[in-house]
Amino acid sequence: MWLKTIVILEPYMKKFALVAMLCASSYVQATDSVNQEEWRQLSAENVVVMTLPHGNVYIELAPQFSPKHAERFKSLVQSGYYDDEKFYRVIDGFVAQAGPQDGSDKDKQVKALTMEDEFSVTDQFSYTLVQKNDMFAPQTGFKDGFALGHSPDEKKAWMLHCPGVIAMARGTEPDTGSSHFYITNGQAPRYLDRIMAVFGRVVHGMNHVQAIQRTAGIEGQDKIEAATFTPMVKVRMMSDLPKAEQIQLQVQNTDSQAYTKSLEERRNRSSAFFYKKPKPVLDICQTPVNTRIVKS
Amino acid sequence: MWLKTIVILEPYMKKFALVAMLCASSYVQATDSVNQEEWRQLSAENVVVMTLPHGNVYIELAPQFSPKHAERFKSLVQSGYYDDEKFYRVIDGFVAQAGPQDGSDKDKQVKALTMEDEFSVTDQFSYTLVQKNDMFAPQTGFKDGFALGHSPDEKKAWMLHCPGVIAMARGTEPDTGSSHFYITNGQAPRYLDRIMAVFGRVVHGMNHVQAIQRTAGIEGQDKIEAATFTPMVKVRMMSDLPKAEQIQLQVQNTDSQAYTKSLEERRNRSSAFFYKKPKPVLDICQTPVNTRIVKS
């Protein structure tokens, strides 16, 4: 499977793909213990299936980092709250935002949450380090496949606004988010790190997120009619779907030795394609954590 | 117009949009000289209109930075070379790549170009500085709306792989690019800076780039049939289109004082929405350079 993974990482020329395949075989790892499994099975109780008119978006929740927001979203999903609601604010290179009509009964029935913009960690906080001196965070890394920022000095960590994360929208004050959410659809808006509650990420179907109808055009463009806005046909927890509609998803185990090795390969760019070596740094938001479907 | 611009920059909550509108009025600039115009008119001779089945993509070429590649692309466009060819390699969060069938007569008829991965500059090189100590470049900034990296020590500058740039694909060797191109569709793959020839950027229609059919799924997913790949219906220079199909595009003048002020506002995040201030740094690839359509 690493063959395929590495080919996907650097896929822009067929000739190069061949080179990558030749190089990649040395990274196939033995998996001796559970901890070292290259893939992690997602729990159907923790995966949201958002059905858009053009396809399904699969989102893994992160209750380990944003417990109240993940729980709230799951609870709203299970009540059918988001069915037929629309993405009413969709900006190129920024976010697709959805929720019920502002100020409606449905909107007001949901109470505001206390912000979960970061969390406290001990000196023993363990995760897979990706980069020090990232422009926005002292350190970045992965835990359970989620991209985190980490400040050892402050003993804090936080989920990063990489493409495809889901976070709760809010008003000016921090503790005002309730049910409206956004999914980032372009270059990571990292300046939102530590002031918004990110609570999950898209693990499959990012193409469908990127295809959501934009609601705001550029100056001089014809108005985009609200009737064309993309609705959520239905939003369900995977575990609540009929068995025939469920799929088994696995995500690369970012805690594994194999994943750490792949980071080093990615950092060092040993392929001949890199006739000049780039700086040996990694933008965590441009570092793939792959997903696969397992046939049961 | 700055009102609208700044609302678009930070548009994820209606309540916040109101705050931004109130703050923004102080950034309306007088435009005393041509150099200080807030908007720059694009030349129809320098804009490519790529018609996809689902909409038009408008690309401004950058002959000032990659003269041979911009000229080659324009020449191929004018010969109808790309019409009906397909995006055959489209990867989520990476690139959409297109061109004729590998090894076909059409493919072989086009000669390889000498690489234009960076260019030499003098100590007097002038551009709008955005950030020092970007993770991949000593300095970043805009010139003519294009995102550049700059190394004063090396006296070199280069076009950055921000989302929406167009660059020539190539083989393992640097001087092998000819007609196949890619457009970046996700988080900026900055590790490709300085080893690929970027020669333009999408100024309008990035939503249509993001909606191009992916050609590679994830492991376990059904094969994506080549018949579903997105074709280019036609690709033309704007100036060669019938007048009725031409539109007049303007792009923010990144050399203007108004734009520099907007960068400072973006860096300092004075809005109350930022109840904790992010680090006062800017990811140039997440710094919008807006486009507008002018009715003639």
From TrEMBL, chains A, B:
<dbReference type="GO" id="GO:0003755">
    <property type="term" value="F:peptidyl-prolyl cis-trans isomerase activity"/>
</dbReference>
<dbReference type="InterPro" id="IPR044665">
    <property type="entry name" value="E_coli_cyclophilin_A-like"/>
</dbReference>
<keyword id="KW-0732">Signal</keyword>
<protein>
    <recommendedName>
        <fullName>peptidylprolyl isomerase</fullName>
        <ecNumber>5.2.1.8</ecNumber>
    </recommendedName>
</protein>
<keyword id="KW-0413">Isomerase</keyword>
<dbReference type="InterPro" id="IPR002130">
    <property type="entry name" value="Cyclophilin-type_PPIase_dom"/>
</dbReference>
<feature type="domain" description="PPIase cyclophilin-type">
    <location>
        <begin position="44"/>
        <end position="239"/>
    </location>
</feature>
<feature type="signal peptide">
    <location>
        <begin position="1"/>
        <end position="30"/>
    </location>
</feature>
<dbReference type="InterPro" id="IPR029000">
    <property type="entry name" value="Cyclophilin-like_dom_sf"/>
</dbReference>
<dbReference type="Pfam" id="PF00160">
    <property type="entry name" value="Pro_isomerase"/>
</dbReference>
<keyword id="KW-0697">Rotamase</keyword>
